[in-house]
Structure formats: C-alpha cells, structure tokens
Amino acid sequence: MGKKEEQLAELLGTLGDFTSKENWDKFFTIRGTDDAFEWYAEWSELRNPLLSHLPPQPQILVPGCGSSRLSEHLYDAGFNSITNIDFSKVAISDCLRRNVRHRPDMRWRVMDMTAMQFEDEAFDVVVDKGGLDALMEPELGPKLGTQYLSEVRRVLKSGGKFICLTLAESHVLALIFSKFRFGWKMGIHAIPQKPSSKPSLQAFMVIAEKQVSSVLQEITSSFNDSSLALKGSQACGLLEAVEKENRIRRDYSTGSDVLYSLEELQLGARGDLTELCPGHRFQLTLGGDSRFSYRAVVLDAQESSGPFAYHCGVFIVPKTRAHEWLFSSEEGQWMVVESSKAARLVMVLLDASHVSASMDDIQKYLSPLVKQLAPGKDDSGAQIPFMMASDGIKQRNIVHQVTSTITGPVIVEDVIYENVDGDISRILPSRDLTFRRLVFQRSEGLVQSEALLSEEGSNNKVVELDPVVLKLAKEYFSFVEEDRLQVHIADGIQFVRNVANSAAADEISAVQEKEGACCNTEPPSSNGSCLESHVEGKVPSKVDIVIIDVDSADSSSGMTCPAADFVQETFLQTVKDALSEKGLFIINLVSRSQAIKDSVISRMKVVFSHLFCLQLEEDVNEVIFGLCSASCIKEDSFPEAALQLEKLLKLEHPEISQSIINTTKKLRQLK
C-alpha cells in the first residue's frame, strides 16, 4: 500500500464526525482531483433503477455531492440541468476543474445542504447519495437531518421527487418516513448488487414524490423478505421499519384517535390549520424537547356556539383533574369549548412531568407553539388567552394522608374557598370559613365528605364501608356512632341483596304461619331504615329508605357517582325488593353527560313506579328519588309538605332553614 492509500485509510478510520467540514476538506485534499469517491453503489448498479424514476428534462439538485461522479453520469445520460452543492470548498473546486470543459452546463456551488440558498420550489428532482446518512450519525441525533429534509421539501416543486440512496438504517428511515408522511407518495427499492464473495451492506433507493393532496398513502416496496439479497439484521430492520410505518399510516387513514406532532399538522395532516373547521377535533403533542412535552386537544367550535369572544384560546387542565370525564372524554371537551367562547380551543392536559413547572413557565413555553395553531393569519396581533380549570380553592392544608387497601390513597384536608355559599357567608360573615374535606386520590375532583369546621365542635356523621375511612371520620370529622346510627363494614350491593333475601324469607315465613306451618313466632320488626333496623349479627327485614351516595373508581367513565354497578337494572330490582310498600330509593347521580343520565333514569323507570329529581343550578349533582308505591305523590302537594318540614326544622340559623325549604320547591317529577 502506497503512502497516499495509507493516508486515506487512516483518514477514513478517523473521520468519525461525518458532519465536519474540516474533516472532509482534508479527506478530499489527500484523495486528489481525479480520484472520485463513491458511496454504496457504482453507476452500473444505479443506472437503470435511477433513470427509470427521472422525468424528462428535469432541474436536478445533488446535495452533498463530494467527489462522486454520479452527476457526471447523469449529465452524460442526457440530463444537463444539474446543480451540485457541498460544504467542502476542496470537493467543489476539484469537481469544477474536472468538468468545466466537458460538461459546461453543470453548476457547482459551495453550500451547506442544511441551509440552502435557493428559492422555494426550484427543482424537479433532488438526488441524495449518502448525504442524509452522513448527517444522521446516531450520537449526533436527528437535528441536522431534520433541517436538511425540511430544505428538500422546500426546494422541490409540486410533483417533484426526492431520491435518496441510503443504507436504510432504522433511525434514518424513521426520520424520512415521518417527514414525508403527509402529501407524499413514497416507495423503497433495493439496489442490485454485484456478485461478491465478501458480505456487504445493501443500498436502497427511497423515492418520495410531492403530491398536491395530503391524503396518506402506504409505502410501496419492490422487495420482500425472500427477495432481498442481504439477510440478517439489515433486512429485518428494514422490513420492520416499513411495516411499522404502514401501520401508523393505516391508523391515521382510518381515523384512529392518534397523537399528531405540530410539524405533521403543519405539513397538512389535518388540512389547512389556518382555516376553522367547525366540529373538528384532533389530538397532538406539543413540544417534545428535554424539558417539556404536552398532550393537547384542538377543537373547532360549532358555528351555533357563537358569537365568539376569542379566535383562539388555551385551556389548561391541571394533573389532578385531567382524568375527569369533563376533560378526558370528547363529549365533555365539547362542553368546555362551548363555555370558553373561543372559536378554536387548544386544551392542554398536564401530567406528573409538569408538577415542578410553574404556570408562568408553562405559559411561556406554550405561547409560541399555540400561535402556530391559531386560525387565520392573525395579522391583528390578537392575544390568545390562557384559561385554567380551577378548583376554586384559595388555601389548602393537608391534615392527614393514609392509604387504604380498598380505596387507595385518602386525604383529609382543610380548605378555604374563594367563594362560599351565600347562606353560610351571611351567618358567619366576619372570617374566612374553613371546610374539612375527605378526598380519594383516585378521583381528586370529587369531594367525598365536607363539613364546616366550628370552634364549638360539631356532631357530623360520615358513614363509609371502608374501615380506613370510618377511622378517619371518627378522628377528623367528629363522627359518633349511636343506637340508631350504626356502621357496617361490608359490600354495599351484597348488603342490600341480603336485606332483600331476608325480606323474602320473612314473607315466606309469614305465609307459612298463616297457613299453620309455624305458630307463636313474632315477625321481625323494622324501625325505619336499613341502618337503623340492623341488629348485630342479623340482617334487617324490609326498609323504608335506601340511599346510594358512592363514588366511582373510574372517573373517566363519564359518571362520577355512583359506581356503574349501583345503577344496573338487576341491582335496582334488588333495591325495590328490599324496600317496604311505600319505600323510597334515593341516589346521588353525578354526570355531565346527558346521554349517561338519560340511560340511568331510563333503567330506574323500568323498576320504580314514579321518579322525582332535584337539580341545583350550580351543581352537577342530580338527586333522583324512586317511589315503590303505585300511587304517585302529586306535585301540588309539595308546598304543604314544605310547610310541615319548616315546622319540624328547629335550626339555630333561620337562613339555613329557609335554604332547605327553598330547595324542596325545586323538586320535579320525571314523566
């Protein structure tokens, strides 16, 4: 081996950083003017597959040309409008001297391929032979490759082609596939290899054709596993990459609820972002750098929701509320859009990774990203407002935390609200009112129990099935068990079922007594409710009132209260069987979905003769009353009942009594 060959071998071994201009200048200086260096494949292998994809008389760009003779072969094949660029002045000077006489129309320019100095849509074809691979050294990341492909997209005309000769490594393909996903037709082909006793990596030709439409198309290929000359990891990686990308494209095409990137949207994944499309909704990821990444939903309001106060708005959902149906379901999100008065709403859902970030940091980071999602040209400089789902709490103090094997993490906290109910504030106007709350972490937006802290002490009664919650009730909410108020640690559904079974057994026993089968046996008595009538070790007979007020462990189901099992028709029938002839079933229904509420009420109508409801304007809660009696209570009898209730109420503060009376007037029958 001569001295020059030794120098070249040493240089190739130490090149390392293929993005270094100095390294390449040194390489081409040592190699010399007339000694061309070819990556991957010779012209004899490339000629037929490459020429078959070139249109007549194209304007061709060859970025990162180096000292390759590829463009010279293309010129000699009849393609004379070729521009070659490379950031190595040595390489461009050598190629220019080599071709200036024989190929006078060939153009050569010293230029960085990641920042080209050409007008938009200047070329019909961009032919890359190893240039992208050189930019995509794994340790350097995708930054330079991304910049380069953005330039390729920019300088190509509509209908133009990007022809990339590559070793098709997975990280290179992942970048090409993502950057040419929307509005491009893509194929990949294997370059024929010369017979050789030495194994070598196979070269491939990726072709991306710029389309007018942004419709997604699957990647086509001219090979399969058995037809590839090369076996092993390169072939497997290539086939897996193509199949993975085609799965992604199928998911997008079938309308699956996938997460777009901001860049994909700007490339036309959902059409023209500057145009409002009433009723359209899509999800995306904002950011994605080492600091922050945000999951967001973009919703364009229906025209009927207007007039709009903002052309675009941002609604931030804190981590503690992101799982709630209102923010996690499509139906709930449209309700937020309507109340926001924004023509386009960008809903950003925070997660655990954002806990340490302040709202100022979050807004500062999101502002430039959100501006790219705003409809219209925004020449007016209109501000994009940031809104947030608040819990209305001015001050919070965690009193106690514990984890239950049944309920999970449980929090006892004292809070001061920003605004307090008018009746309470009139009674105690001189100070901030502190409320003690019981909250399950699985559904932090739902308060399980709440009591106003009193300096005088209180006699609050909290009943739960979880023994941990019962312990908390006694220690932190002054709960006291009495003769007529007992707590049973049991499964609620099974408890009601036992009551119903016991009542049925009592009825059979009563019939047997009447028929003489049994005698001198006193029937069991009921003293008013399933809790009050329970004697230790004995299931009560029929009860007069059953109240269901239990949260759902699945806060994303659309029904916060009760758990779904408590409104199944089979359980509702069990409740009716447990109730006395004039028994009353009361259920606290919490859902923002009208469809879910209608479904629950429909099931209750099948079981109970008459239904009534109480809906307070400021609350999501709706209390449903089911009557067993065939004879219905008439609504015109409510005023008289309210007067009787007023006489029974002997509260210290008349404002509270009046509030209760006013509430009874809001009862209405469900027809």
From TrEMBL:
Q: Which InterPro entries match?
A: Lys/N-term_MeTrsfase_sf, Methyltransf_11, SAM-dependent_MTases_sf
Q: Where is the Methyltransferase type domain?
A: 63-164
Name the keywords, alphabetized: Methyltransferase, Multifunctional enzyme, Transferase
A Pfam family for this UniProt protein?
Methyltransf_11
Q: Does the keyword Transferase apply?
A: yes
Q: Name one GO biological process term.
A: methylation
**Coiled-coil boundaries:** none
Q: Which GO terms describe its molecular function?
A: S-adenosylmethionine-dependent methyltransferase activity
Gene3D superfamilies from the xrefs? Vaccinia Virus protein VP39
KW Methyltransferase (keyword) present: yes
Under the heading PANTHER family, the entry gives: EEF1A LYSINE AND N-TERMINAL METHYLTRANSFERASE, SAM-DEPENDENT METHYLTRANSFERASE SUPERFAMILY PROTEIN
What family classification does the UniProt entry report for this protein? Answer: Belongs to the methyltransferase superfamily.
Name this polypeptide is given: Methyltransferase type 11 domain-containing protein
* Organism lineage string: Eukaryota, Viridiplantae, Streptophyta, Embryophyta, Tracheophyta
